[in-house]
Amino acid sequence: MPPANSETPAVELEEIEKELWRQKLKWEQDLDDQREHRLLREGLFYHDDSLNGLSDDDRMWEIIRMSFLQVADVLDSVGLAHYFEYFLQRGILGAKHMRLLTLKYVETKMPRIRDPIERAAIVDAAAECMQNEDMRFFEARYGDIDRLILDCQHARRFLSEKTIHEKWLLDQYDLTSPLHDDTNSFKTKWHVPQKDKDSFYEYDDWVAATGCDGFLFLWPIPESAASIEDAQAATKCSADSRHRVPPVIRCRKLHAAPCIDFAVDWKAMRAITCGLDNKISVYNFSEDNHDEIREKSTEQGFLCIDAKLEDGKAAAGTNFGHIKVLDVENKKFLMSLPGHQDHCKDLRSQKLIHKLVGHNANCSAIDVDFQKRRAASTANEYRFILWEWDLRNFRQLAVCESRGHNANCLVADWAKGRLATGSDDGLVRIWNLNEPKWEPMWEKSIDCMHEMTVAIDADWESNRLVTASWDYNVDMWDLETGDLLHHFVKPRRCMTQAWSPEDGQLHAEAIKSHLGKVKTLLTMGKEVHEVALQQAREAASRLKDTQSKWTASSDAKHKVQSVVDQSQTVKDYAAAGSSQSQLLFVLIVVCVSVLGAMFFNRMRYYEKKHFI
Question: Domain range for residue 489?
Fold first, then answer.
């Protein structure tokens, strides 16, 4: 809605006017859906040397100016570049805003444009501007212009000066308001192109993850992988894009609340998930359908689950401390086992043999080898403990301090004596357990560029590591080189679990190994902003539109240059004001010092005169 003191009325579109706007954008329906999603994913690695060497603020300001130039190009294509500054004044700052223009908006909110022919020409040009791929994928490659303006100091200073002196942006209006149904972001967030869905049988190696939106995601792992250096070197080449950023093959909402834990039968390609909505879902990846199992209690939530799906049995822990055993095939709960006084975190056996006492904080993750009767556990105390037990007793093999590295999750290769831990610092540390001395040594660290690594899984035979994070990243790394092999794109909220199969299948030995693993639980309710990730990962680039129909004329360039000159003037004024303030502060300090010295000497004079 417009501001209360708006000089123009709100824009209310009739259905026929919305349909007219849709018809102008009908060309979008002819685009290759799969290719569009691929280019959006590739935007994460888009790079242009023209922005190299710039500071973060200068880089953002350069991108903002590039977005301004898009408006000038669209207007100049119909010979109306003299309206360029007027469009910026109305808050239309880039091609993404131009695409939303309707004739009703121009007539209502832009009274300076009085000629009906000019209005129609502007709306037609705005509807076609996104046919230029540089404009269509600008946000994927550079970031959201609206967010960049808020984050860029130069932009805030420039727009503040314009708002104060020329009344820019005072009567802004949300362009998406009358087109709410048509501008829904569901398509870009959760939509999977049909061609990507149909490619399910082309792969046999997978990564799966769950997130706080209640979705389960499945990505393929291509046969060959490109490192992040190769990806950056081949920015504009799409031949290996599926290796850098593989497509999501399955994206299914299974829970109305955060999906906390899941287990996968990679041989049958089925998964079982649990969430805080008192529901357990059994999902078939190949058929893309799922069944639900619920209990009567509406206040109960499931916090962890483990299953042997080939036998149709599963067990889940609840927030009331009970362990629920269920028959997956018949969709029935068989029994409820009490025993935990607090929230049940994980279940691996029904019989209590030992209590392994050693941590002084809540145990957050554990990896168990039931064949060798060994375990590794970590807690919120900057250390992990190695255990060994038999039927009569247990002992601590080693206590490893990890200063500055508070592990949230861990995964062990008991056959080769190696351990990987993920922490709040975004690092994954690889440890050599030094069997039989059991003196863990820190081998190396992999910087996963996460804000918080919360889930981890490893295929030790193939030297691959999968991490999931609080900033909704799912990445695959090379354990030997530390290179980023794949970046899996789709989630929009923090991740809870990540699973990667060994050799593309689930073997009997792997089942036993995974049955001994407690996966990480997250504290829910926080959401990291989507744009922060995109801005941290993308490399900005300048549009090269010269000698095309979008090339700006001399008049348009003059307008843009005038805006740049004004911004530079504001910057110079601010610098001069800062220098004057510093000089004035120095003068005040000097004056105060002189007066203090005078008063001090006067006091000494009276002291000597009256008391000496």
Answer: 222-241+351-521
How far is it, in rounded angstroms, from Cα 46 to Cα 141?
6
Q: Distance between CA atoms of 544 and 138, rounded to whole angstroms? A: 12
Within 269-338, where are the H helices? none
Question: The tokens of 106 are what?
Answer: 């121009």
CA–CA separation, 151 vs 264, rounded Å? Answer: 42
Q: How many CB atoms lie within 10 A of CB 445?
A: 16
Collapse the DSSP code of 208 into the 3-class scheme (helix H, G, I; strand E, B; otherwise coil) and give the result: strand
Averaged over 289-299, what is the pLDDT?
A: 83
Reported as a single tens digit per residue, the pLDDT across 167-212 is 887 766 667 666 766 666 666 678 889 999 999 998 888 999 888 8
Q: pTM of the full predicted structure?
A: 0.65
CATH code, 375: 2.130.10.10
Q: What are phi and psi of 333, to 5 degrees?
A: -85, 125
* Choice among 179-183, 295-299, 520-524 with the minimum mean pLDDT: 520-524
390 assigned to some structural domain: yes
Looking at the structure, tell me whether residues 430 and 566 fall in a common domain.
no
Whether 57 and 97 map to the same domain: the answer is: yes
* 582 inside domain: no
As a whole number of angstroms, the distance between CA 252 and CA 292 comes to 13
Alpha carbons 232 and 252: distance in angstroms, whole number: 31
SS3 per residue for 235-278: CCCCCCHHHHCCCCCEEEECCCCCEEEEEEECCCCEEEEEECCC
Q: Is the pLDDT of residue 119 over 50?
A: yes
CA-to-CA distance for 379 and 366, rounded, in angstroms? 9
Residue 246 domain flag: no
Q: Crossing angle, helix 116-128 and helix 15-24, to 10 degrees?
A: 60
The closest of 471, 479, 401 to 444, measured between CA atoms, is 479
- Between CA 535 and CA 449, with CA 66 as vertex, the angle to 5 degrees is 10
Q: Is residue 253 part of a domain?
A: no
Cα-flanking dihedrals φ and ψ of residue 370, to 5°?
-75, -20
Strands (E), 269-390: 270-275, 279-284, 289-294, 302-308, 313-318, 323-327, 332-337, 363-369, 374-379, 383-389
Bond prior to 440 in cis (omega within 30° of 0): no
End-to-end CA distance of the chain: 81
pLDDT of 547 reads: 38
Q: What is the CA radius of gyration of the chain?
A: 31
Q: If pLDDT is split at 50, 70 and 90, which confidence band does 537 have?
A: very low
Q: Are residues 465 and 567 in the same domain?
A: no
CA–CA dist 245, 219 (Å, integer): 10
Look-up: residue for tokens 């799966």?
Answer: 208
Q: How many domains does the chain have?
A: 2
- AA identity, residue 366: I
Q: Are 185 and 179 in contact, with CB atoms under 8 Å apart? A: no
Joined tokens for residue 248: 């999501």
